[in-house]
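Chain A, query sequence.
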Amino acid sequence: MRSLWEDTAPPGPHREPLDGDTEVDVCVVGAGYTGLWTAYHVLEHDPGASVLVVEAERVGFGASGRNGGWCSALLPQGEGALAAEHGPAAARAMRAAMRATIDEVERVVLAEGIDCHFRRGGTVVVARSAPQLARARAEVEADERAGSPERLRLLDAEQTRKTVGMTRALGATSTPDCARLHPLRLARGLAEAVERRGGRIVEGTRATEVAAGRVRTDRGTVRARHVVRATEAWTATTGSREVVPVYSLMVATEPLPARFWDQAGLEGGETFSDHRHVVVYGQRTADDRLVFGGRGAPYHFGSSIRPEFDGDEGVFRTLRATLRDLFPAVAGARFTHAWGGPLGIARDWHASVRHDPATGLGSAGGYVGDGVGTANLAGRTLAASITGQDSELLHLPWFGHVPPRWEPEPLRWLGVNAGLLVARAADAAETALGRPTPLSGVLATLTAH
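Chain A, predicted structure.
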């Protein structure tokens, strides 16, 4: 099952597997965004360092090459949760760092000539019912209390329609803090930038043990002063309960004609969503397709990850139907692609970055689907610690955070899938009743928000 991104990205070079035991300064396990950004920024700060990235499949194989292409400043756990745990000042610092991350990604994209269709158009999240509009207003009010009301605006119905021609729009929240991009082009371009700076990437090399000072693989052992685990959802396949892999699926249309976009809008490169409980997300691509995705696929017992889980025809049908409901003029268009993959969710919805200078062991992950931008900040933070910088990044509240472990099975399977069912039920109840329901509170409890 090939994604749109795979079919519209220039082919990446063939990289040989590891050819036996070796020793380097830094070994990174995983050639997704976290691993590549870590390698890139280590080499940026220490050009003489020997850096090896070990990848079991190929560059961008995981979520980094399959996602919705939102480079956003979104925080999975929300600023309110951060403020409650770490204090308002720490939450504001984290939020500012995430906003700056979009600038940083753009800087590297331009400096390295990465043709990933980067366009900073912001995000518009539409309210299509009274309960959704209430949630939109509450978000803007929370943003105002945080002291930065200019970042998140509440649009009225007319303003919303001028931005995105979505049906039943009562209003929307709008933020400039997002860029749309082609995710696989970014991953492959970033890998080539790492190699230009002297880093080495090996593919087809599966890590069997990640420990302080060494990475054992099926192709040899790597000894390194610093070892970084950047495996995100695949961390769960090692038996770790730090994250659970939850699948997100996507569909894409053929390129759509100008008459469609005259109604649908999104001419500024905005990414879009709405305020329902079940997460959905979309973008207008550089070649005028609609790419649309969302949650809905079940969590698989034992945190299993298998290729056959990348597709679920029932979820694909729901996504196509949802997109036709949002944009009825797409009804006659052909859907050309459908794909999916897992993302990593921490038990407290709190992404984390860790590195112990004494042992050299580091890790990052738990992005809850917001990893395009977050992984860049994680990579810069890891690189700062590895290279011994006195960086403000090392004082952000997620550095050193250790999330609680997920429950053992079968409680994990029951809890995660119950959360999905409650989210669907809450959306259905709000649509039928036109008002919020107690299910929203149940959902907040299940997801630790």
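The chain has a mean pLDDT of 93. The CA atoms of residues 260 and 394 lie 47 Å apart.
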